[in-house]
Amino acid sequence: MSHLPHALKLGLDALFPNFCISCQNHIQADQALCQYCLDDLNLFDLTRHPNLLHRPDICDAFPDSNFDHLIACAWYQAPFKLWLKQLKFNDQQYFRVALQQVIGKQLQLARQVNANWPDLFIVLPLHNQRFLARGFNQVSQTWLPVLKNQQSTVSSALYKQKATKAQSQLSKAKRVKNLQNAFVCQQDLTGKTVAVVDDVMTSGATLNAATEAIKNAGAKQIWAMLTCLTGLGNLHYD
């Protein structure tokens, strides 16, 4: 609604009030969280750890990461766990708006604390069968508007050529095998720094498979950008 004239927007806000999904206070129509609740969320401190792979507990949780740099919003726990599940499985769009506010906040901070920044962003694609069955890609829904708002270059160079099994019920070793040759990169990325975007990382197998395909296309550095991080010992999301 940001393109509407200010007076019209104020009128619509008055006629159709919008409320924070956390505290129920009145907020603008294009938001889902008030500023107080957004600031109160337990997000990763990117000021202290611009590259989360250098944070000891995260390094221990994902020791086999093939990508070079990691940025994420939070651990996969309340309230993010609910928001992501409701968006992915029930297409609850007001949770998308809340997640976009969180992602926007973290990305803005990440740009301030990282001297370098990716040349382009690739949202992790779904296989065509999965996309047709679900009807949408929830990662694209949440991340693309934020990336475009921050004038980032988005590419569709990565293609998922293998219809893999759902990762949630597989062991770490089987996850890796499941994703072998799953992705192919359709663009020459020689010398580029590329960010791969996904919603939740559990073992890192999917991101590693995407990283391999992108490095084979010539990229010099791969960043992983996630909404949430979880661990194999926790409840799965995939």
H/E element order = HEEHHEHHEHHEEHEEHE
* Rg result: 18 Å
Poorly predicted regions = 233-238
First-residue to last-residue Cα separation: 32 Å
Strand elements, count: 9
Shape call: globular
Describe the main β-sheet briefly: 5 strands, parallel
Query: What fraction of the residues are assigned to beta strands by DSSP?
Result: 15-25%
Q: Would you tell me the structural class of the helices and strands?
A: alpha/beta
State the strand order across the main sheet: 3-9-8-4-5
Q: Specify the helix fraction band.
A: 25-40%
> What's the oligomerization state?
single chain
Calculate the mean pLDDT score and round it.
85
Given the structure, what is the number of helices?
Answer: 9
Domain Double zinc ribbon: 12-41
Family: Belongs to the ComF/GntX family.
Organism: Pseudoalteromonas lipolytica
Protein name: Phosphoribosyltransferase family protein
Describe this structure in words.
- This protein has 238 residues and is an alpha/beta fold.
- It contains 9 helices and 9 strands.
- It has helices at 6-15, 35-40, 56-61, 80-90, 93-113, 128-134, 138-149, 172-178, 205-216, and strands at residues 18-19, 26-27, 69-75, 120-123, 154-155, 158-160, 183-185, 193-201, 221-229.
- The chain has a 5-stranded parallel β-sheet with strand order 3-9-8-4-5, sandwiched between helices. A two-stranded antiparallel sheet has the order 1-2.
- Strand 8, helix 9 and strand 9 form a beta-alpha-beta unit.
- Helix 4 packs across helix 5 and helix 5 packs across helix 7 (138-149).
- The longest helix is centred in the middle third of the chain and has 21 residues, at 93-113.
- The two termini are 32 Å apart.
- Mean pLDDT is 85; it is low at 233-238.
- This is Phosphoribosyltransferase family protein.
- Belongs to the ComF/GntX family.
- Residues 12-41 form the Double zinc ribbon domain.
